[in-house]
Amino acid sequence: MRGAGCTINDLLDRNLDPHVARTKFRPIARRAIAPERAIVFAGAQLLTGLAVLLQFPTQCLYYGVPSLILVATYPLAKRVTHYPQVVLGLAFSWGAMMGFPALGIDLFSSGNTSALAAAGLLYTSNVAWTVLYDIIYAHMDIRDDLKVGIKSMVVAHEKHTKKILAGLAITQLALLSGAGIVAGCGPVFFVGSVGSAAVSLAWMIRRVKLDDVKDCWWWFRYGCWFTGGGIAAGLVGEYLARNFGLYEKDGVEAKRLASDPPGPAA
Questions:
Q1: Average model confidence (pLDDT) for the chain?
Q2: For the segment 182-223, what is each residue's pLDDT rounded down to a tens digit?
Q3: 9-46, pLDDT tens digit by residue?
Q4: Where does 152-209 show beta strands of DSSP type E?
Q5: Displacement of CA 215 from its chain's centroid (Å)
Q6: DSSP conformation class of 148
Q7: Pick from 4, 158, 22, 151: which is nearest to 91 by CA?
């Protein structure tokens, strides 16, 4: 689906990309591939994504199909708003919602308010994270974007980028912490996932040279692995701690169990 989004983006931007140094050699922009063939290719990618989606519970269809609207909307957003990064974040973060129905949890059924809150907090945390990284990415094209008339948060707020990045990082960490609290996570998650994310984001925001195209590209390409790797490691650690008895019954796990609805009467 990410590939399909890239194809749709390149197809809709085929008249803009030739005017941007970084994108002018993309296949559709340099006319190595005709738009008609690109449409066929995008269709094949979408069908492949559908084939994967059909392997999951049926309710995943109801959660997954609406994401196509966001995938198709992002390339158009940069023409009408200075905040296309937000639309991109909404599309890229959709997997945070999809994990729940994939496990058979209907977020919108009665009795699943905690799961819905956790999903919403995790999703919006990922949105903030995506916007943060794409702002760094957008700095590579700012001069050409200004000439062509492409809108972005960088074009609108170039002089305040680092402050915006810091604000987004704090927002991401707060929402991620909120998801952990609602889900009843313990110290392994908060130290491993939230703590490592805080360190990696602070390091990146401090070190990135926004006026250096190569430096922006390096941080965009590798920075997400530092933050994402730490979050993933913390989640794995939390899972292992729960399943191997690191948390006592009177601790975090007991709180989670106590919040579960009671089973049917004997």
A1: 89
A2: 999 999 999 999 999 999 999 999 999 999 999 999 999 999
A3: 999 999 989 999 889 999 999 999 999 999 999 999 99
A4: none
A5: 22
A6: H
A7: 4
Give the global pTM: 0.85
Q: CA-to-CA distance for 134 and 129, rounded, in angstroms?
A: 9
The residue-averaged pLDDT of 242-256 equals: 62
The answer to whether the beta carbons of residues 38 and 163 sit under 8 Å apart is: no
Helix axis angle, 2-12 to 35-53, nearest 10°: 160
Written as six digits, the tokens of 129 are 């994270």
- Which pairs with CB-CB distance under 8 Å and at least 24 residues apart come from 181-184? 182/114, 182/117, 182/118, 182/121, 183/114, 183/118, 183/256, 184/252, 184/253, 184/255, 184/256, 184/259
Residue whose entry in the numeric block shows the structure tokens 């170039």: 158
**Tokens representing residue 105 in the block:** 């949890």
61/250 Cα distance (integer angstroms)? 39
257 vs 99, which has greater pLDDT? 99
Q: Which residue has the tokens 């063939």?
A: 37
User: pLDDT over 90 for what percent of the chain?
Assistant: 62
Query: CA 67, 69, 72, 75: dihedral to nearest 10 degrees?
Result: -100
